[in-house]
């Protein structure tokens, strides 16, 4: 009975993963216990995941900072293992009460033998093939004991059977009582073990092959890394040499460029200073004469004094005849100075740094065929510019400003775009979307947009995936349509602002609302925004994938165009306070030709900047 109990206890002290006696046992949240080293291996299989799945019940346990050592220890089990390890094993074969200590353990008999019994056991012909282990090697951990399983319900019975449906071992008595119903497939434990071992061996063989495959892959990657590292080192050496050779030339070129800038701007500053000095001298002249004339407390009666007073009054009258200052000349001088640009070198020789250039602000100023009618503008697939007018039609202009044709002249245009197959997408004054072929044939595709009453004034944009976006002022949202027509496939909310205009920009949309530009993702989340208080702004995407923003001072008819990063950080000024003809209606659009020219449109005129 003592040996049976000892075997049952020994089985309870085995880790379900490594099948050895527990080492540093740790408890999971599901109450199952495993060796710390086994849990470390299981956690390592999950990569960086902090969740550990129990191999028995598959419940998950949170591992703090991926440190298994922080899981609670099974102190009771640890103490029991220590007690078992400290006990002596006595001979299972001796019948006397004072049993001697065992020195070996027979795997096949499942019994411990003292020196005498071991000698006798080894001489029995039937037992000469048994596997016998020295107890010293078992205690030291050099070998593992293959214990026979004893039934917990019937401790004298071995678990000789295995139920495939219940996934458990059982003795013959348990099989008869519990595993004879339909659906229970019972096989010999040895057969199951052989099959299981073979399965393990097959998996291990496959794992070794797969590991070998990935090891070759790792070796290949290491080889490629080494090659890249060699290239990196060589390039770094070359760069350092080139840097040392270039520093002197760059420093010299820098001084030359700074000198050029000073030469081009100092003259303007000097002329402005002369204008300022002349104006200040006139102020002093006026002040002096006025003070002398007006400081007289009484009218002079002396003839000489009266003559002198009259002369001073005449001088003051002459001074007052001078015209008021003309702001045009200093403004033009200022533009000349502000047009100076540093253009970085775009060629192969970066040591040249760049050159100083004077910006050429505008190339063309083109009157539209109809006044106060422009409502939308977009680049065409063939690199021209299409201007939509609400009085009817789309006017096409080349990059050099040549008017080429007017299409769809009988349709009121409130938005225009192009699909990837060059079909036209037209938004009319009732917020209806219509598709046209290259030959301007109307296609029978219907879109369920919001009416003008429900949605308000609408704007249109088309992205690279041929999705059509319609923004509504009154509804304060953007609907997204497929080119196949029908209902909107989704809606983008515009929380707290009115989307006056929309422009596609990669995976984002640019919305214009009064004096604010917003960069939003296609779920409506505002990523960045820029506000220019008091000014009207509009935006477009440049060919270099940056963002162009036009700022208009409507009252004084001045437009400036600046370049920004995708985070709406300022890059450079492109156009500064360019004078435009004042339109009655303050509605503006901005686009860029594929060839780089910038098109700025008012309700009356098209301006093309180079």
From TrEMBL:
RING-type domain segment(s): 15-58
Provide the Gene Ontology terms for cellular component. Answer: nucleoplasm
- GO MF annotations, alphabetized: ubiquitin protein ligase activity; zinc ion binding
**Entry-linked InterPro entries:** 6-blade_b-propeller_TolB-like, Quino_amine_DH_bsu, TRIM45/56/19-like, Znf-RING_euk, Znf_B-box, Znf_RING, Znf_RING/FYVE/PHD, Znf_RING_CS
Q: Which keywords fit this entry according to its UniProt record?
A: Metal-binding, Phosphoprotein, Zinc, Zinc-finger
Keyword Lipid biosynthesis recorded: no
UniProt-recorded name of the protein: Uncharacterized protein
Organism of derivation: Strongylocentrotus purpuratus (Purple sea urchin)
């Amino acid at each position: 009975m003592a040996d049976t109990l000892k075997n049952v206890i020994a089985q309870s002290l085995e880790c379900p993963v490594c099948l050895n006696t527990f080492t540093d046992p740790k408890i999971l949240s599901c109450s199952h216990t495993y060796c710390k080293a086994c849990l470390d291996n299981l956690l390592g299989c999950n990569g960086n995941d902090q969740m550990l799945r129990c191999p028995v019940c598959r419940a998950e346990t949170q591992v703090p900072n991926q440190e298994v050592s922080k899981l609670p220890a099974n102190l009771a089990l640890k103490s029991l293992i220590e007690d078992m390890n400290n006990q002596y094993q006595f001979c299972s074969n001796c019948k006397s009460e004072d049993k001697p200590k065992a020195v070996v353990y027979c795997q096949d008999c499942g019994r411990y033998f003292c020196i005498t019994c071991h000698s006798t056991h080894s001489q029995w012909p039937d037992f000469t093939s048994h596997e016998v282990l020295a107890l010293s090697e078992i205690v030291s951990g050099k070998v593992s004991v293959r214990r026979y399983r004893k039934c917990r319900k019937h401790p004298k019975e071995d678990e000789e059977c295995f139920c495939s449906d219940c996934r458990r071992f059982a003795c013959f008595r348990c099989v008869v009582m519990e595993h004879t119903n339909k659906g229970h497939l019972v096989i010999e434990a040895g057969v199951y073990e052989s099959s299981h071992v073979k399965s393990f061996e097959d998996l291990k063989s496959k794992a070794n092959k797969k590991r070998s495959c990935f090891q070759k892959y790792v070796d290949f990657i290491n080889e490629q890394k080494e090659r890249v590292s060699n290239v990196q080192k060589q390039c770094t050496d070359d760069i350092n040499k080139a840097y040392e050779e270039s520093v002197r030339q760059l420093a010299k070129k820098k001084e030359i460029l700074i000198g050029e800038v000073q030469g081009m701007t100092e003259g303007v500053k000097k002329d402005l200073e002369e204008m300022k000095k002349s104006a200040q001298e006139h102020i002093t002249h006026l002040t002096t004469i006025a003070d002398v004339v007006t400081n007289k407390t009484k009218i002079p009666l002396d003839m000489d004094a009266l003559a002198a007073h009259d002369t001073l009054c005449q001088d003051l009258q002459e001074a007052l005849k001078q015209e008021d200052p003309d702001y045009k000349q200093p403004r033009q001088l200022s533009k000349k100075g502000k047009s100076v640009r540093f253009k970085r070198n775009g060629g192969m020789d970066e040591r040249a740094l760049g050159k100083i250039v004077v910006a050429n602000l505008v190339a063309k100023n083109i009157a539209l065929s109809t006044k106060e009618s422009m409502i939308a503008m977009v680049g065409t697939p063939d690199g021209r510019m299409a201007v939509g007018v609400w009085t009817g039609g789309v006017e096409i202009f080349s990059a050099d400003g040549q008017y080429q044709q007017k299409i769809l002249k009988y349709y009121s245009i409130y938005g225009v775009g192009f699909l990837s197959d060059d079909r036209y997408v037209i938004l009319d004054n009732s917020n209806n979307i219509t598709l046209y072929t290259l030959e301007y044939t109307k296609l029978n595709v219907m879109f369920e947009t919001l009416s003008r009453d429900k949605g308000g004034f609408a704007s249109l944009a088309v992205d690279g995936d041929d999705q059509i976006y319609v923004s509504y002022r009154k509804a304060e949202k953007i609907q997204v349509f497929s080119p196949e027509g029908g209902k909107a496939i989704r809606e983008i909310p515009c929380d707290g602002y009115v989307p006056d205009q929309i422009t596609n920009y990669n995976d984002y949309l640019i919305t214009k609302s009064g004096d604010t530009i917003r960069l939003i993702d296609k779920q409506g989340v505002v990523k960045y925004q820029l506000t220019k208080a008091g000014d009207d702004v509009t935006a477009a995407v440049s060919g270099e994938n940056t963002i162009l923003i036009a700022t208009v001072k409507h009252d004084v008819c001045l437009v400036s165009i600046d370049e920004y990063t995708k985070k709406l950080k300022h890059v450079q000024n492109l156009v500064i306070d360019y004078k435009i003809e004042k339109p009655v209606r303050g509605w503006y659009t901005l686009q860029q030709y594929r060839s780089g020219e910038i098109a700025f449109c008012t309700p009356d005129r098209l301006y093309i900047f180079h």
